[in-house]
Request: fold
Amino acid sequence: MAKTRLAVLFGGKSGEHEISCISATSVIKAVDKEKYDIITIGITKKGEWLLYEGPIENIENDTWEAKAKADLAADPEHFGITILGCGGKGLKDICDFVFPVLHGPNGEDGTVQGVLKLLDIPFAASGVLGCALTMDKIAAKDVFKSAGIKQVPYVALNSTEIGPEIEKKINDTLVYPLFIKPANMGSSVGISKVHDPSGLEAALKEAAKYDIRIVVEQGVNARELETAVMGNLEPVAGAVGEVLTEADFYDYEAKYHSSASRTVVPADLPKELSDEIRAEAIKAYLACNCSGFARVDFLVDKDSQEIYLNEINSIPGFTKISMFPMLFMATGLTYTEIVERIIELGYERYNAENQK
Ligand SMILES: Nc1ncnc2c1ncn2[C@@H]1O[C@H](COP(=O)(O)OP(=O)(O)O)[C@@H](O)[C@H]1O
Ligand SMILES: [Mg+2]
Reply:
């Protein structure tokens, strides 16, 4: 049987470029080479798509760009992505399936997924709607609300509304500390924790640097618990894990540069609580029309044990020591089996959408 040509998309124009390169390397190393021919396509921090055919070590340490071979250009005339300098071949001519191992804006927000859908190429993880909904914290909250999923009280606004009126609404509705977030970012970029009204305006302006849509949330003194979900219309949840950080909150520094954060899998939790988290995660996953896989993050109030859904990450970190794979490895699957299942689910969704 001919091998499946599996294109792995990595890098990207987001703050999570480097983590994507490491995740992609893990995926590439894990897939069954008897079954798949791997095609590696890197996206630079400027957003250029480059076909890369060098050693994978250069992807892991993000030095691949200097050795990349050919540009891929969006070609409006033929409505496709063409490899420049390769005789006019399109992306669809060189691969059968795409695994976008991309995080953040222009990666897990529905944009790349829209391109792949237009090109009629099956791909891993959620489609346009699932990615777009879970990327935008305000849209996601609206969906969680209509699905009856518990979340912290919040106020959503546009950056043009920043001023005394919205500050009054926030101060009247929410109890400090507050978390001020750009709606579309990731990696905690642009997020501030504010302890009293004097810091509110500056925090709103900081968030507005990254997005015109801003969300203000009531802070919880919380444990950060996460679960992993895989599947399409009948998804299953993995174990529940915990992120422990000594920082004031899990900010960019704590996520990527500090040794003061660690993960515990499985989390030390009563079974009822972990079952509730897993059930809520599946409900939220389906409500947002996710498919393939996702990581679902919760805040659990340390005093009341109340569970609040925080966010869904439609393409979470995927290195061998990342939370997503670890949560399924804790249920007995191997990393390679997880990757294989995600590819299968991508094909299943593509076939269902195309009635094949
Ligand atoms: N409402 C909240 N209460 C307590 N901590 C919060 C709240 N919202 C966010 N945090 C803290 O900020 C971190 C980043 O927020 P999050 O919404 O997950 O943003 P990102 O999408 O950038 O990961 C969380 O991991 C948590 O530590
Ligand atoms: Mg988060």
Summary: The domain at 134-149+221-353 is CATH 3.30.470.20 (D-amino Acid Aminotransferase; Chain A, domain 1).
